[in-house]
Structures are given as C-alpha cells and as structure tokens.
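Researcher: Sequence of Dihydroorotate dehydrogenase (quinone) follows. Predict its structure.
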Amino acid sequence: MYNTLVKPLLFNLDAERAHHLVFDNLRRAARVPGTRALLRALYDYQHPGLEHEVFGLKFPNPVGLAAGFDKNAALTDELATLGFGFVEIGTVTPRPQPGNPTPRLFRLPQDEALVNRMGFNNDGAAVVAARLARRRNRQLIIGGNIGKNKDTPNERAADDYVACFDALAEVVDYFVVNVSSPNTPNLRQLQEKEPLIKLLQQVQERNLSRATPRPLLLKIAPDLTDSQLDDILEIARETKLSGLVATNTTISRAGLSTDTSYVASLGAGGLSGRPLRARATEVIRYLHQKSDGALPIIGSGGIHSAADAQEKLAAGASLIQLYTGFIYEGPSLVKRINQQLVASR
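Model: Prediction complete. Tokens:
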C-alpha cells in the first residue's frame, strides 16, 4: 500500500512538507483508540534472536531510526509502534535555531536518494529534554545526537556539546557527538585530530563524572580518507568512546543517475540513500578490521533492503540505522529486515 498509494502522494509534495504531513498524520492516528496496537501488528516483529547487547544497552532488535527524522523528539512514542529497536533524536543544539532557509530537502528518485541542508533546525536542548521526560514509552532506547549552534565559533564548540549533554543526560540512553554534518559552516573542521580530541575529552569528562555514565559515540563522515579514519580510531581509544556511527551524509555527487545540471541546481547539502551504500559499508569494514572488532559501530547509509542491512552487519556493524531507505521503502522495511535476519540465522 505504501509504494502504490502513500508514496506517490507524498512524492508529489515538497519533500519537507511531506515530512511534516507524515508526522502530523501519525500523531493524529496514534490518538485513535486501537491504532497503536494495529501499527504494532502491522510493523513490529519480535524474536529473541534479534536481541543485541551493545555498549551496555540491550536492544530488542538491531534496526534503529537515524538522527534527523525526529529532530525534536516529538514522535518517539508513535515511532515505537513501527518496530524500531531504538530511535536517535536530534541533532539537538543548546539553543533553538531555525536551520537553513527553505527549500532545503530534495529528492533524487532516480537514485533513491535525498539531498538535505537542513542546518540543525531544532527546538533546543531544554525543550527536547522536557518532551522526552514526558514520553509514555520508557522501554524504547533513545539516542541523543548533539551538535553546536551555527553562531558558536569552533573554539567554543565544546561548551555547546557539554551544554547539550547536561540537558539530555537524564532522558537519553546514549549520546552521539555530531561533528560530521556538512550543513553547518566549518563544523567538519572539528573532525581534525587536535580539536576533536579536546572536544571529546571535555564531553567525556562531564560524562564520567556522573554516577551512571552514558555510552558516548562519535558520528563520522563518509568522506574521510583512510589516514583520517586511522586518526578517528586513535581518538576513540584515547577518549574512551563507546562506539562510532558510520556514516553521515556525503558531499560527493559521484555516480548519480540524476541529470547533473539538476543536481547542481540544488546547491550544497549532504547526500543520503542508495548512492551512499557502498562507501558507508567500506568505511564500516575498514574501521571494524582496523580495530579488531573492539569498537562497536552503528552502520548507516544506503540501507534500502534486508540485503543492505545484512551487508552492513557482515562488514562489522553491531547495529544499523535507517533514514532515506525508510522514506523510499516505507515502514514495512523495518519488519522485513528483522524477519530476514532471523530467517538467515
């Protein structure tokens, strides 16, 4: 039904407008008695063989929703009915910000891809924290993806990440430090070795001072070289990270089927979806092999099928996340992946 009816209707709308329409309708539908149970019956799939314990947390299944879909933690209870093993909210910044001017989200249907330059639009850490404190479903594992405000200079970036950590520490189960989005000016400069170590050390110092520290992960770009990936592994060891998220969106436009002039007309932004699959898997495999499998990896990028999910897991990912594949394939993708993972054991 999604591919034959819902998707064509949504794809006739502006991409960001369609996103908000889905949000609003899912929220309204969930208020109708019996709807949540119906959604679980349609999309949730539970099996003991799917349970994963990673960085001290027990996940009911390895399929999560990537950051960027529910930036403001506005829909976690509703998303819990769709079969996800975990949901990562954000990216959240200390202060609310509107993000980049619209339009800022574009589809490339020929490539089953998206281009976005959202720019960390979100309600701010205090509002998101209050919203998470009120959520009904306390079983769903929530990750908090955190970033800096656009107008915060890089030399003060650590202050923003620590502020987000402090605001969310009681309401999320793990944290992801996002320095790899291409849509905040100069943010990716923080991936360089020296500034990244300093930033992560400050966040980790605050984290380890808590009675119950949270797993702290780093989200990296797919555009890093092998030597930069080696640096990331060294940084992860030095700052005692719990894991990595590989990968964020790419600034590359190589190998697209969509007309190059149209792609160029869209302007800057991160590319996600099928074109990212191979490179994301390559990065996961490299990190897994170089770390001898000692560092858990959440694999993200181009997962549009159960086979894509298995590829990421075989490459060394402990968990996986969907975003663009979820938009192109619909909510049944989560169930299909989990069923196939059980069937292939």
